[in-house]
Design goal:
This protein has 129 residues and is mainly β. The chain contains 1 helix and 8 strands; from the N terminus they run H-E-E-E-E-E-E-E-E. Strands 2-8-7-4-5 form a 5-stranded mixed sheet, with no helix packed on it. Strand 4 and strand 5 (79-81) form a beta hairpin. The longest helix has 17 residues, at 2-18. Mean pLDDT is 80; it is low at 1-7 and 13-24.
Length: 129
């Protein structure tokens, strides 16, 4: 049963990722009870160069009432994103550990239960002369 669920999920993501209009199915269409948020890059616990921009690549199998997500860095001011799949550019972060969270909300602003948090470490680059 787990293999069948994984196959359905993979197929759903494959179809969603190839659709130019980003018409991603909702979580109930594959039998999932909660929304599913996946981050493709950067990898969890990644070490990235401080001060340089990077891309947050993600996809969401939305909940039936899901409308948008909020992307927050270290609990700061959220970036509101309506697209269910995207590449969100994050401008260089200072050295240290940072938490990036993606949380799904309804149109009315209620959390749906879909959430994921990623930790990244930004490492200072040595000066070259």
């Amino acid at each position: 049963m787990l293999a069948r669920w994984f196959l359905s999920l993979s197929l759903g993501l494959l179809v969603a990722c190839t659709d130019p209009d980003l018409n991603i199915p909702d979580s109930t269409s594959i039998g999932a009870s909660q929304p599913l948020i996946e981050i493709y890059s950067p990898a969890g616990d990644a070490v990235l160069p401080a001060g340089l921009p990077f891309v947050l690549d993600y996809a969401i199998l939305r909940s039936p009432r899901g409308h948008h997500v909020k992307i927050r860095i270290d609990g700061g001011k959220p970036q509101i994103v309506v697209r269910r799949r995207g590449k969100h550019r994050i401008h260089g972060l200072p050295p240290g550990e940072h938490r990036i969270s993606i949380v799904e909300y309804t149109k009315e602003g209620e959390k749906t239960g879909g959430a994921i948090t990623l930790r990244v470490t930004m490492r200072a680059q040595p000066q070259t002369y």
